[in-house]
Amino acid sequence: MTTLTRRRDRDRRDDHWQIFYGDVRVGTIGKRAGVPGNVDQWGWYCGFHPASQRGLADAGTAVDFEHARLAFDRAWQTIQPRCTEEDFASYRQQRAWNRWKQKMWETGCKLPTQSTDGRSTCYCGATIDTVTMDRHIYAAHLTEEEQASA
Asked: Is this prediction's pTM over 0.90?
């Protein structure tokens, strides 16, 4: 059984962690910004897209990190058994698509949807169009880990 792991969110200065179930980010735990000193200082969110679209998500506040972690764990124990393999596969595909799109932009390539004829050349050299784009991304640009998990 896959266990949850916690990684510090490098994009934030405050105490904030991303929570992963294998390679899928399933939530966060962190200090809340801008709240009065007399309320819960920590917040947590448990869920990931697309499962959260079906109501499989939860969130709350806590007085400290340990209470936030315990609440997150309780929520995940309720949510995880209701998540499907398709939820995890869809998350990985969307992550690969976003990563591909960013690399296309970074390398100066246009997406097929940005061309008047609906065609483009991928940064890897493949010719793609609006019909073959998704298929190409998932066949050529999913990482080995993502492919093994799909």
From this structure: no
